[in-house]
Amino acid sequence: MNFTRWSARLPGTQRRAAARAEHPVTTTDRRSEGSVPAARAEQLADARPVPAVDELPVREVLDRVPALVALVHGSGHRLAYVNDAYTAAFGARPCGEPAAETLPELRDLGLLPLLDQALRSGKPRTLKSRKAPDGRHYTFTCTPAAEDNGEGAVLIFATDVTDHAEAAERLRASERRQRETAVTLQRSLLPQELEEPDDLRIAATYQPGGTEAAVGGDWYDVITLGGGRTALVIGDVMGRGVRAAAVMGQLRTAVRAYARLDLPPHEVLQLLDGLAMEIDANQIATCVYAIHDPNEGRLVYASAGHLPILVRDDNGTVLRADEPTGPPLGTGGWMHASGSIPLGPGSTAVLYTDGLVERRNEDLDEGIAALERALAGATGTPQVVCDRLVRSAGVTADHDDDVAVLVLQHPARTGPDSELFRNAALELLGGVEAAPRARAFASGVLTSWRFPADLHDLGVLAASELVANSLQHGIPPMRLRLRRTDRRLIIEVTDGDDHLPRRRRAEPGDESGRGIAIVATIASHWGSRRTPGGGKAVWCEFVLPKPTE
User: Fold this and answer.
1) Gap between the Cα atoms of 110 and 453, Å rounded
2) Which of 158, 140, 129, 141 is nearest to 69 (CA)?
3) How far, in Å, CA of 374 to CA of 351, rounded?
4) Spatial CA neighbour of 117 closest among 150, 148, 140, 85
5) Is pTM, for the whole model, over 0.90?
6) CA dihedral 352, 358, 363, 366 (to 10 degrees)
7) Which stretches of 260-411 are DSSP H helices?
8) DSSP-assigned letter for residue 415
9) Which pLDDT value is given to residue 4?
């Protein structure tokens, strides 16, 4: 192929040649004017004219460029030319043969269809950063060109981008390591094993976002409060990466500490709100904190900007706990409030983060409504329900956001199992006869529940001391409640005074102050809390011996 004639057909070549013919460049001999020294004039006279770009030999230029250049022509892409750089990279190539045979490296890189596209469309086509057989990365550009005989040709130009490709791979490897670090931190901060309350069956799942999404700050937790009550929490720290996971870990630790105070849900969120501002004033988090009391059959909760709890009752009806909801943690200046939703025997509740229901180009309420429909038809164990909800939401390994789901069930006890979960309560009217009546009531109940003699006596003693403490320091209304589960005996006394008792050392001459100390000594655990309507509850529990086989 004549490269000089071929270059003359490149766009702009004929136009620039015509312009030079119309306006020839003339040089003026200014030596007579005396403005140029004689030595300089001799140099100018001997200097050769610099050729224009259009006059340069094309083949000589292409042979010297460091990029890989090849020229193919015709529909069969027969090889017409390869430059020295191409030969150095892939070896000598015979001209006149189809590219599919003589340029196997282009075939293996999938470049042949690109040649067809460039030839048909008359427009350049580019294939970015492909690894060639020589181990280096190239970006290939296929540019159509016309030949003298009218047959189409394609100029293949390959730029070495190995340094860029290796830098990009190092960056991707660094991002993978950072993501793995964040995932490891996130999972280590989540509970490794969920606590198992007596009255609830619980399962949870956490799935980080896909490889293109940084790990967020989703978390959940289950905390047994004593007295048969259970705290459940789920939250989402806004942001991504290690920082969000670290803030999540601090909030989760704080929730467990505040939960030990046995405060109402809205007071726990109030404390968390102030802590979140201290941790990072620029980072906020949503959270739901809920408490389940089997005696009440309700889930009492408070929400800081989080998505509503969903509850399916034993009839299959799904309820949404919409109110009350305050702003996210870390905003400050808001008084949170507690609400409640029924959670009786046979009910299932779901707490979740926005990754389960939020989708691009879709209203959030539509995602929650879809989750309600999925929950209405999801039956089985909590883990089965959890897995079905995640699948129904279309969550996969490459999901673009973290997902955390917490499912809890309050089983309906039937048959022999119901004998292991019993309740008994006595209203205390006060007066000197209240203590003997309480002891007689506790003795009768524990006998009917067929407890061993030693546990029977300890239970009666604990009930007597708690009632005596309430009669001395509390005010009506008063109630004694006994509850048994398959694992423990719980004794609780409530009254109308909100002053919480504390354990103290009684001196030998003191006539009082030993009741709580006695209860703390004989019971497995004891505690107290303020009740929502005013007043307090003091409780203790005994671990039941495991049945012998």
Assistant:
1) 85
2) 158
3) 14
4) 140
5) no
6) -50
7) 265-279, 364-376, 382-392
8) G
9) 43
